[in-house]
Write a structure and sequence with these properties.
It contains 20 helices and 19 strands. The chain has helices at 16-20, 61-69, 80-91, 140-147, 157-161, 215-231, 248-257, 277-287, 298-312, 317-333, 346-350, 363-377, 383-387, 399-406, 421-430, 435-438, 445-448, 451-459, 466-482, 492-501, and strands at residues 5-9, 24-28, 32-37, 42-46, 50-55, 104-109, 114-118, 127-130, 134-137, 176-178, 183-189, 195-201, 239-243, 263-271, 290-296, 339-341, 391-393, 414-415, 418-419. The strands form five sheets. Strands 2-3-1-9-8-10 form a six-stranded antiparallel β-sheet, covered by helices on one side. It has a six-stranded antiparallel β-sheet with strand order 4-5-6-7-11-12, covered by helices on one side. A three-stranded parallel β-sheet has the order 13-14-15, sandwiched between helices. Strand 4 (42-46) and strand 5 form a beta hairpin.
């Protein structure tokens, strides 16, 4: 189900066994120890030259297995990691870019050289950490548990809050190097055991020139991509859960899911300030979902923010704010479904973050920057959902749709005082939703429920002061990583103490 792991290189006496054995499974490698959470999905292969681990989940592994099967007759008997290794051998590195999921590929050869291949969409953020030891992990908390406060050299608050746009390998910690998404990272060591990291992209950067495409073709592509992402989940799930706001994205996902799953459960959240229950009820009644609503208290809002910081290791105020709603829905869904699907990511692809009626010289550039931003924020990390025993999937956030929308003519995204035009036209064409939902004005999930206002009120700032929200998130993030704060202790009193200290 999950993807949490940590590798530590031999050399310095690190008390991994005593501090982590209850929560992790250990595997001794040629030059170090690799640890996996009890919930981590692992596929392992070992031969005389190297040992390889596919960590996490490749959602379209059956498609990749099918491709390999065209030239390799025994593909059906290969493990998942063997499928990836074999197809790489046949087609080269770039073929791995078709894999979708919260995975990474970890390979160590007998000489002690390490290769880490990262996924491209920000679902599994892997870090190289240099303390007295060399660590590779997608969960920095593990290192904090072992080494304590001395593990991390945090950047100043000013360095972290002053910009909202960062390179996709940005880390707020000086001795942590974030591995770029969609890359092959080869870690070698010189004669004095100093590390050297060589990085190669799986594919070349995408050309940013707009291309021509007929509307009918575009509608077919959107339909095919969304249906493929949703329908393949029905093979292992009779029931699916969906966070339903009543906006276009979540409603569209719910409508399509209703065609493939025998039962659909939906949840809507709001606050005392506002909610979207009227619209989610329209969709639920129309599609016949098993629907629940929940008014969040201020304590529940801040709890969702804090849990997103802890599990997904988010330090960015906007991202933790948006994730609060999802984490509260995880809590509502726990034990009721195995998997959730969301409409998350659609706004960044189809123009939902743009202002209707406003003139933009380069709308695709704005959207591309925000898509890129998700590669370091941790908002698409699956760790949080896994902590509730859930798989979470985002049907809009596929390699094909991201690539398609990157260069899609803005005409399809913003015109006639409206945004997400092509997606609305698609929803209208399949005739599964009421017109009032298809053409409803766009509101962000954190705005419709007023989580953004509640967050601001709780920390005593203005609703759009995201520097203050990042300051709060970063303060809590540091305490979690240093081991000074346990998630069970993160009550309002404890949080106020941390804010005062920072």
């Amino acid at each position: 189900m999950g993807s949490e792991f940590c590798f530590v290189k031999h050399g310095i006496d690190v008390d991994v066994d005593n501090k982590l054995t209850n929560d992790f499974e250990l595997d001794e490698l040629f030059t170090g120890t690799i640890l996996f959470s009890n919930t981590t999905n692992i596929s392992k292969f070992k031969n005389e030259k190297y040992i390889a681990f596919l960590i996490g989940n490749i959602y379209n592994i059956s498609t990749i297995r099918y491709i390999l099967g065209k030239i390799e007759g025994r593909s059906n008997v290969l493990s998942d990691v063997e499928v990836i290794l074999s197809i790489r051998e046949k087609f080269g590195n770039s073929i791995i870019s078709i894999a979708e999921g919260d995975y990474c590929l970890f390979i160590e050869d007998k000489k002690g050289n390490i290769e880490i291949i990262t996924e491209s969409r920000g679902l599994n953020l892997v870090n190289l950490v240099q303390t007295d030891s060399i660590w590779i992990t997608n969960s920095l908390k593990i290192i904090g548990k072992v080494e304590g406060e001395k593990a991390f050299d945090f950047k100043s608050e000013r360095e972290v809050i002053q910009k909202s746009l960062r390179p996709d390998d940005f880390s707020p910690i000086r001795n942590v190097s974030r591995l770029k998404p969609g890359t092959i990272n080869r870690l070698t060591f010189d004669s004095q055991k100093y590390p050297h990291l060589e990085i190669k992209y799986l594919t070349s950067p995408v050309d940013e020139n707009s291309f021509d495409i007929k509307k009918c073709v575009l509608l077919d592509i959107i339909d095919s991509e969304l249906r493929n992402s949703i329908s393949r989940l029905s093979k292992n799930n009779e029931t699916i859960g969906i966070p339903l706001s009543g906006g276009l994205d979540s409603s569209l996902v719910t409508a399509l899911a209703s065609q493939y799953f025998s039962k659909v459960k939906t949840w809507s959240i709001g606050t005392e300030l506002s909610n979207e229950f009227e619209f989610s009820k329209i969709v639920s009644d129309h599609l016949g979902t098993d629907h629940e609503i929940k008014i969040l208290s201020e304590d529940e809002i801040i709890s969702g923010i804090v849990k997103s910081i802890y599990h997904n290791e988010i330090f960015d105020g906007l991202s933790s704010e948006i994730q609060s709603g999802l984490f509260n829905i995880y809590e509502l869904a726990e034990g009721k479904v195995n998997s959730l699907i969301t409409g998350y990511g659609s706004d960044l692809l189809f123009g939902g973050i743009l202002e209707p009626g406003k003139s933009y010289s380069e709308p695709n550039k704005i959207l591309s920057e925000q898509v890129y931003r998700t590669k370091w924020t941790g908002e698409f990390s699956t760790h949080g959902a896994v902590s509730y025993g859930l798989n979470v999937y985002h049907p809009f956030w596929t390699n094909n749709l991201i690539s398609l929308c990157n260069n899609l003519d803005p005409y399809f995204k913003i015109r006639d005082n409206e945004v997400k035009n092509i997606l609305r036209e698609y929803a209208d064409s399949i005739n599964l939703l009421p017109k009032e939902i298809v053409w409803r004005k766009k509101i962000g999930i954190h705005e419709g429920s007023s989580v953004n206002k509640s967050f601001a009120k709780i920390i005593g700032t203005e609703v759009n002061n995201y520097q203050a929200k990042t300051r709060f998130s970063y303060s809590i993030y540091k305490e979690f990583l240093k081991g000074n704060l346990l998630i069970e202790e993160a009550n309002s009193t404890k949080l106020r103490e941390i804010i005062k200290r920072n």
